[in-house]
Amino acid sequence: MFQPSSSRFLLRFWVPGLIVAVLGLLGSYALWRQQQNSAESVAQMRFEQKSNLFAQSMQRRLQSYMDVLSGLQGLLKLNPQLQRRDFERLASSMELENRHPGAIGVSFTRYVPGTDKDSFLSRTRAEPSTDGRSSKDFQIHPDESRNEYFVLEYVWPRRGNEPIEGLEIHSQPSNLAALLRARDSRSMVVSAPFELRQVSEHRMGVVMRLPVFTGEGTEAKDVRFLGTVDIAIRLSALVDAVRGEGHWDNLVLNMTDMGELGADGGLVAPRTPGTLFDEPDLDSSDIRMHKDVIFGGRLWRLNFEHATPLLSPIEKGLPALVAAAGVLVTSLLTALVMMMGLRRAQAVDNAALAASALEVSEERFRTLFSQAAVGVVQIDSRTGEIARANKKFSEMLGYTEAELENMCLQDCAHPDDAAASMQELRRMAAGEIAEMRMEMRYLHRDGHVVWVDLTAAPITLSSGETHHNVAVILDITQRKNMEEALRTNEEGLRSILNRLPIGIALIKDGAFDFSNERYAQICGYDTQEISSLDAWWATLVVDPQERELYRTRWVDACNEARESGGYIRAQECTITRKGGHLRSLEMAGVVLGENYLVTLVDISQRKAVEERARYLAYYDPLTQLPNRRLLLDRLQQALAMSARHQSYGAVLMLDLDNFKSLNETQGHDMGDRLLGVVAQRLRSCVHVDDTVARHGGDEFVVVLRSMGESEQAAAAGAEEVAQKILNVMREPFELNGELHHTTLSIGITLFHGQRESADELLKRGDLAMYRAKAEGRNALRFFDPEMQAVVEARVALEADMRAGIAQGQFELAYQPQMALGSIVGAEVLMRWLHPEKGPISPVQFIPLAEESGLIHRLGEWVLRTACERLAAWAADPVLSELTLSVNVSAQQFHQAGFVPQVLAALASTGADARRLRLELTESLLLEDIDDTVKKMVRLKSYGVGFSLDDFGTGYSSLSYLKRLPLDELKIDQGFVRDVLTDPNDAAIARTIVALGTSLGLQVTAEGVETEAQRQFLERNHCYAWQGYLLSPPLPLKEFEALVMGRASADLMV
User: Which residues form the EAL domain (predicted)?
Assistant: First the structure.
């Protein structure tokens, strides 16, 4: 045990204790100072928090006033001529005193040009308020002559604000400056502080103004400044309102208006600050600060002081408590150090133990060298030979430790890496580098490559000499193989990404890290030309407003993606790629931490298709005119406008005359060209606000608006426009170098308000147009209610006809045909027996069937029924000799499938085609005579016969008769009726008989009613006839009975 027996020991005993004591006291003092500063920081932080809450509350109050102004602004935009009672009703509903403390009134300051002053005063004085008070004494004050006035027209509440009603703002320079600033900037501004006229104390206040413009969103020339909506704020009341929210807490406030802010954020024309609100300063307060509130283009400075302490007694006493604790700890440490001195002697005894421990440590080092998990090599720095290598390095290269000790390290290096590693060793030996580290390749004993991470450094002795280097070698072959595989995969992935049909870009820290080829194709730039996302927006979105809009949407989508799974929802934008071409893109992506993977899809083609589809939905592609869908929308607008303005309008229904003939004779291409030129001429005849639309086929509709306030004026105006159209259409059209003439038929109907629907107006126009066609075409006619009744009857008859076809109400009658005294056949006639209306004349329903297209179904039914009857008669020796004549309309004959239809009826029923005769009218020959002949020849080849009905009443020519494969001519009953009394009819009948005989055709007379008529025809060699002289048209059973009876009588004779 060590015994302290000298003064030297005592010195060593006390000095460490004194040092610890001094250092401990200094540390205690530092802790006391740090705690004192911390307490002051807490007080300052609490003061700042209260000040911030106060400033934020005031900002919210000011924003609530702005919301009031926005509501009034919206109302005035919708109704610029808003009356006083409406303004006061809305203002009173806002409950300013309860909801917006500090606001003493809202008002509207109207901009009045000097020339409009008198009309403004007259209108204003005539407007009553909500409480019934008159405004007849309204005056502009001060009343001075000016080029323009800014008059406080409406104010709420009126009571208490009478002094400012009618105030001309030029009398308050600061208020005028704020108003002009609001008008020029088109944004809300706050005036400089001034004394309010409508209060008697605490009069300091400001006015917030929000400009009102009408016509926004249209061309700049249509935008008009209406005035400003204002709200007067009493600043003392505003402060009291904020105080009422609990943000006061003994704060002493001084508010100062620093002035107006410019566009760069600096003060414009700084002036002496104006006091907004002031309370007495506290000389005893040592904490002060200020907050700036920016609102309405002005800077308000809020200076705060605190009237009471911000720290509790415990917080104030904490520094002293910390200092006392520090002194106590110092005392304890001093005692501890002195006790440790007593034990120092024990350290001498432990020195011997340390030497023994050193030997153990060296042995552990040798063991560590040999058994380390990495290769460790000791190299002779002069020869480069391996002096010593551990087991791991030996296993790494496949040599024994003994074999390695006779080798140079460079002997194991790959030939391609040996020179580089040798160069680094020389640099280290020369002292250029303290150590070397490199990745290189060694060759295993069996020849394969081993990748290593080599770190070498010199071993410096205490004498400063260096004889050996030590190298730590880590086998990284597996990592290199993985890196190579990863590189291969990455190259494959890049190849795949470059072949994707969408653009892909990886953005790291706002810069492009990768992009594929499609990205460059879409944008026209690669990531070398545009390296950051900010540069991408600036280059590809030229318009600043669009750029800011797109950028904001993108940032919002990215923020939303971070919170909802990482997928950035698609955003559409339009970019200007290199070369100036516009492209529509769909941007989407994935958030990867702070980075983004962005995908770009070029949707330009899809957008173009959608735009074309939208266009085709509302416009006719041939004429570029509005189609029926857009026409109905425009017509609804015209009806609403007519009701709103109590004016008349007109609808013109136009139809080209003989357009079908042009289509069929010169082709549909020529018809399409004519429709396009007609559309151009129609547009030139009407006002730009009126509508010209294609209604379908060769029909057009013109909608005329605002034709006058009387029916007579509207009718005259509509007739003038229609006549102008007729005159323009009479001018020839040049189509493919040839002049073509066409005309229009126009139907006109007037409308007033919304009494009739759009469909009803089009129906009336259609009726009037058909009347114009019926009365000679190339004319205009106005709608007549009687016409509608006729059409409604026709519509009802058409509906009955459709039902009759479905219910089998039609039947056939047979009128016998005689030749040389015997019944040789019959003409098949259609009859309609309505269950309620009884028999309906063919004169009524046949023309309607042709117009409606029902003639095709009826004609096919008649044809099939006649074939069935011929097939049924085939087994009877008398009836099988009869021929049935079936009337065929021109529409039915000219349909594409008529010939197959006839052949199918014959084939399916088994009827003899030689007993079927088709009666054609001369009107059929007007359309495509070549096609007519072709069809007749084909049917003739199957045995079907043909008869030309009502010959002599139509347009037949001898050349047509020569070409047509006819079997029979039929003399119209109109000629037969008067052959005995009218020499002309007798001559015509003889001529037809002679003509038919000369052409080898059978001639049959229709409508023979007397024996004298039959004898006349027989004397002129016409031996075939039909008519009431023999029999009227008969039902099937009666006809068969008649034939059988005549046949029996002939046998008896």
Answer: 794-1047
Other Cβ atoms less than 10 A from the Cβ of 1049: the count is 9
Tell me the residue range of the domain where 846 lies: 797-1052
Query: Please, which contacts does 954-958 make with residues 24 or more away whose CB atoms are closer than 8 Å?
Result: 954/921, 954/922, 954/923, 954/925, 955/922, 955/923, 955/925, 955/926, 956/922, 956/925
Q: Which of 289, 287, 292, 288 is nearest to 273 (CA)?
A: 292
CA triple 416-417-423, angle to 5 deg: 125
pLDDT band of residue 469 (cuts 50, 70, 90) is confident
| 592/625 same-domain check | no
Residue 843 lies in a domain: yes
Q: What percent of the chain has pLDDT over 70?
A: 88
**595-647 confidence digits (pLDDT tens):** 888 998 888 888 888 888 888 888 998 889 999 999 999 999 999 999 898 99
- Select from 306, 333, 359 the last residue of a domain: 306
Please indicate, yes or no, whether residues 812 and 723 belong to a single structural domain of this protein.
no
Report how far residue 540's alpha carbon sits from residue 556's, in angstroms, rounded to the nearest whole number. 20
Q: Is residue 362 part of a domain?
A: no
Contact 484, 441 (CB under 8 A): no
Provide the CATH number for the domain around residue 711: 3.30.70.270
Q: Clarify whether residues 416 and 553 are in a common domain.
A: no
Tell me the whole-structure pTM to 2 decimals. 0.38
Sequence-distant (≥ 6) Cβ neighbours of residue 875 within 8 angstroms: none
The sheet with strand 386-389 has its strands ordered as: 386-389, 375-380, 466-475, 449-460, 436-443
Residue 314 lies in a domain: no
The DSSP annotation for 205-216 comes to EEEEEEEEEEST
- Closest-CA residue to 618 (of 608, 629, 607, 609): 629
Burial 918-931 (b: 16+ CB within 10 A, else e): bbbbbebbebeeee
CA quadruple 799, 801, 804, 805: dihedral, nearest 10: -110
273-299 tens-digit pLDDT: 667 777 766 555 566 778 888 888 888
Is 114 in the same domain as 63?
A: yes
Q: Are strands 194-195 and 822-834 parallel, antiparallel or unpaired?
A: unpaired
The last residue of one of the domains, among 587, 608, 629, is 608
| Residue 212 shares a structural domain with residue 70 | yes
Rounded distance between C-alpha atoms, residue 347 and residue 177, angstroms = 89
| Three-class SS state of 733 | strand
| DSSP label at residue 141 | B
Residue 881 shares a structural domain with residue 775 = no
Q: Which residues contact 548 (CB under 8 A, 6 or more apart)?
A: none
Q: What is the pLDDT of residues 946-960, one digit of tens each?
A: 999 877 665 555 666
* Domain count within the chain: 5
* Residues 655-667, mean pLDDT to the nearest whole number: 79
- Greatest extent of the chain over all pairs of C-alpha atoms, in Å: 186
Q: In sequence order, which ranges of 593-667 are alpha helices (DSSP H)?
A: 604-618, 628-645, 659-666
pLDDT of 900 > 90? The answer is: yes
Quote the tokens at residue 700.
Answer: 């057009």
Length of the chain: 1053
CB-CB neighbours of 523 under 10 Å? 25
Q: Are strands 436-443 and 386-389 parallel, antiparallel or unpaired?
A: unpaired
Residue 11, in any domain of the structure: no
CB contact at 8 A, 404 and 386: yes
Q: Omega into 270 within 30° of 0, i.e. cis?
A: no
